[in-house]
Amino acid sequence: MATGQIRKALSGYYYVEKDGELIQCRGRGIFRNRGESPLVGDFVEYTVETAGSDGTIQEIFPRDNELVRPPIANIDQAILVFSVKEPNFNTILLDRFLVVLESFYIKPIICLTKLDLITDEERVALQPYIDDYKKIGYDVIETYIDDASLFERIKPMLANKTTVLAGQSGVGKSTLLNTLLPQLALKTGIISQHLGRGKHTTRHVELMEVAGGLLADTPGFSSFDFDTIEREELTRCFPEIAEAAERCKFRGCLHVKEPKCAVKDDVEAGDIRTYRYEHYLQFLQEIIDRKPRY
């Protein structure tokens, strides 16, 4: 028995990294019988019968987290790529992404692209939002088209981490991947002038070594829903609301109509931004209205 990490999945094979070498493996039939499937990012135990033959994955170790799109496990962080123009910066969409990542205990890093496309007035209007997210505790990277310094700025954030990219279509995820992994030469998605959306340019998932860490080689997902989040969990997914909630009088306070709610007090005092609180209320209602799953 040996242990390693799945770095690539392709055509029914799993490529397990062990001491710098990729071992081609198949999964045991028992996984299929249980409805389980090994994922890129999984740490596994495998056997190889004879030198040079395919290995067999015998066991999948417990995961810290997993995503469906892209199908990947044990992610430390996600770089959320959002453009400030074409498509325009959208706080409710950004908060939707942030909440889902927080729910999976995946650290978000916000990367704002295309800053060279906005006017001075638009930049002045954007700055308070950048300041807000930094104050909450998020790392915010500001970049522009053909930013030669981007890799050097992101590089320290990638070391010893497994990272994925996420964000709305057409915001520059493929461009960023090309910067971080030039060997990919991904085609950059062309914005549809009619729809304002980028065309899909995704591939199979592979974890590639870059800057002392691992990076998924696909831009991955472009939308999120709250299927796996319960109403009681939502507070935790807004860090500044979670901090204020410690001072709420009633345990389990949802910060809607309850008396002596520290969250509502902080919103009134301006310590929690109104738009963030409104997004919290909107997401809470979505979760409450969600149809039960059977």
TrEMBL record:
Domain of life per record: Bacteria
Enzyme class: hydrolase
Positions bound to GTP: T113, K114, L115, D116, G167, Q168, S169, G170, V171, G172, K173, S174, T175
CP-type G domain: residues covered: 64-224
Entry's EC annotation: 3.6.1.-
Domain EngC GTPase per the UniProt entry, residue ranges: 73-222
InterPro entries cross-referenced by the UniProt entry: G_CP_dom, NA-bd_OB-fold, P-loop_NTPase, Ribosome_biogen_GTPase_RsgA, RsgA_GTPase_dom, RsgA_N
Coiled coil: none
Cofactor(s) in the UniProt record: Zn(2+)
List of residues binding Zn(2+): C248, C253, H255, C261
Alphabetic keyword roster: Cytoplasm, GTP-binding, Hydrolase, Metal-binding, Nucleotide-binding, Ribosome biogenesis, RNA-binding, rRNA-binding, Zinc
GO term, biological process aspect, one: ribosomal small subunit biogenesis
Compartments where found: Cytoplasm
Gene Ontology molecular function terms on file: GTP binding; GTPase activity; metal ion binding; rRNA binding
Subunit structure: Monomer. Associates with 30S ribosomal subunit, binds 16S rRNA.
Purpose of the protein: One of several proteins that assist in the late maturation steps of the functional core of the 30S ribosomal subunit. Helps release RbfA from mature subunits. May play a role in the assembly of ribosomal proteins into the subunit. Circularly permuted GTPase that catalyzes slow GTP hydrolysis, GTPase activity is stimulated by the 30S ribosomal subunit.
Matches recorded under HAMAP family: GTPase_RsgA (MF_01820)
Protein family (similarity comment): Belongs to the TRAFAC class YlqF/YawG GTPase family. RsgA subfamily.
Official protein name in the record: Small ribosomal subunit biogenesis GTPase RsgA
Gene name of this polypeptide: rsgA
